[in-house]
């Protein structure tokens, strides 16, 4: 998950927690306020009913009820029970209220009780040395409706708020990470071919500026290192080849001396052959090192992979005339653009020639199939042989310079070809995959990106 998405989610989660806490606070205090108001209204009615019950002149009793109905109205499911004094156990059992509910009323303190959506009030009403205990109950339907409306309003408001919070969080994080994305785009555009490019450093005096300067410092060090390697290889190429050429020439001259003994001729011949091997090894090592350069000295152009494979086949025919390399064109893409890559023709030819010649060599010239295809991103070249294969425990080391599999002792080689091929493919922003079974053969699959991808 991208960091900006994480920030948006964290911001949303924190906001959700705050909104939930605020909603619970509002709901709780609204509930308390509505309940308190309803209990007070029920107490007023209970007090009027109690005074009406203590009125000796019964003709005036109707006045109390008339005042109650005219000015206060009745509450939903309103009931009043008048107890002449301290309620007995039978009365308490009949009303199904706890005994502690009546204790405050005995001390002239109104008591409130809420049970199963019904509100209860008990209070002691006294008049002319007489007193009664009034137990009143009612159902606050309006209050419950208000609380239900408030709950729905808070829930809807919560979800709407979450949508806005997440949206604005995404916009906020997107704006914050805009400089980071610009750095990522610029860094992706810097590769072995334009190592001299640098990031644009804006004087913002923040972490983004520090990050950009750090990247530029690292690129400075990398460019210096590449230049040093470039100079070393160029000088080593000249210094190695000159003495080897001299030794090779002297060996040829020694073999042509008249009257030379057979032992001396054989010695000069061995020197000549070993020098020839050393020259081949030196050239391979230099080629391997050169694939790590910055690409300034190589010529990059549009390369058609199908034409390249045909030229590799022609080269294999010259080197190993008895080869059985076959090219499968049945899976070529209809779009010719998917066969074109941007690369160095000589290096790519060297890479695929190494694979094809290895397939011929390690299969003792058994059939080798080269299939060309493409997917949505890469042009794919599969080279399959019927050779000796590579042991499973060693297949991960075939791109290590000078490594040779344990079953290749009877074949000449130096362990340079596949590492060179791997470096060339990586230089072209591609990748390679190898599948092999001992005694059955090897499939070497390369993926090179299209020119316009």
From TrEMBL:
Catalytic reaction list: ATP + protein L-histidine = ADP + protein N-phospho-L-histidine
Using the record's annotation, list all stretches that form the Histidine kinase domain: 235-452
State the PROSITE patterns in the record. Answer: HAMP, HIS_KIN
Alphabetical list of SUPFAM superfamilies matching this protein: ATPase domain of HSP90 chaperone/DNA topoisomerase II/histidine kinase, HAMP domain-like, Homodimeric domain of signal transducing histidine kinase
- Keyword Phosphoprotein on entry: yes
Membrane-related topology note: Multi-pass membrane protein
A GO cellular component term found in this entry reads:
plasma membrane
- State where the protein is found: Cell membrane
Q: What is its EC number?
A: 2.7.13.3
Enzyme superclass (EC) = transferase
Task: Enumerate the CDD domains for this protein.
Answer: HAMP, HisKA
The residues covered by the HAMP domain are 174-227
List the keywords (alphabetical). Answer: ATP-binding, Cell membrane, Kinase, Membrane, Nucleotide-binding, Phosphoprotein, Transferase, Transmembrane, Transmembrane helix, Two-component regulatory system
State the protein's name.
histidine kinase
Q: Which organism is it from?
A: Dyadobacter jiangsuensis
